[in-house]
Amino acid sequence: MNSPEQTLSIIKPDAVERNLIEDIKSIFIQNNLSIKDNKKIHITKEEAAEFYKVHQSKPFYNDLCSYLSSGPIVVLILEGEDAISKNRKLMGATDPKNAKENTIRKLYGISIDKNSVHGSDSAENAKKEIEFFFKN
Ligand code: IDP
Ligand code: MG
User: Per DSSP, what are the bridge partners of residue 33?
Assistant: First the structure.
C-alpha cells in the first residue's frame, strides 16, 4: 500500500465569492481526501506573482496574478492515497468547457480564468506550494 500523499488546493476568489467553500470541501472529503489544514486568506498581487511564477512567460500571467489576489481564497492541505492525481481528477480540465461531468470545474467553473480551484500538479510542486502557504 502506498503511503498517503499531500497536495495543495486553492479555492479561488470566484468560488469563495459564490459561497462554494463547503460544497468543494465536501467533494474532497467524500473522495477520501482529508483536510489537514486550511485557512482563508487574501494575498497581494506580489504574492500571487511569486506563487504563479512558473507561468511568468505566459500572456495571461498578469491577469492571473491580479485575479488570484482580487479577493479572499481558501488554501488547503489535502491528504490521502494518490492525493495529487486524485485532486487533479476531481478538479477536471483547466477550461471548464472541457471538464468532465461532476468535476469541480464542470460543476462550478465560470471560465478558463475563473475556474474555481487550483491543485498541485506534481510531488515536487505540492511540497513547494504547501511550504509557500503553510510553513513561513
Ligand atoms: P491548471 O490550473 O489546470 O493547473 P495551468 O496551465 O497550470 O492550469 O494554468 C494556471 C491557471 O492559469 C489556470 O488554472 C487558469 O486559471 C489560468 N490559465 C491557464 N491557461 C489560460 C489561458 O489560456 N487564458 C487565461 N487563463 C489561463
Ligand atoms: Mg497548474
Answer: none
For 23-63, the pLDDT digits (tens) are 999 999 999 999 999 999 999 999 999 999 999 999 999 99
Q: How many domains does the structure of the chain reveal?
A: 1
Residue 108: give its domain's CATH number: 3.30.70.141
Residue-level pLDDT at 1: 56
Among 15, 43, 118, 129, the active-site one is: 118
- Domain housing 121: 5-134
Cα(67)–Cα(131) distance, integer angstroms:
22
Nearest-angstrom CA–CA distance, 112 and 69: 16
Cell 504574492, located at residue: 47
Which ligand is nearest the CA of 93, by number? 1
Asked if residue 135 has pLDDT above 90, the reply is: no
Rounded Cα distance between 89 and 41, Å, is: 25
Percent of the chain with pLDDT over 90: 96
Per the annotation, the verdict on 118 as an active-site residue is yes
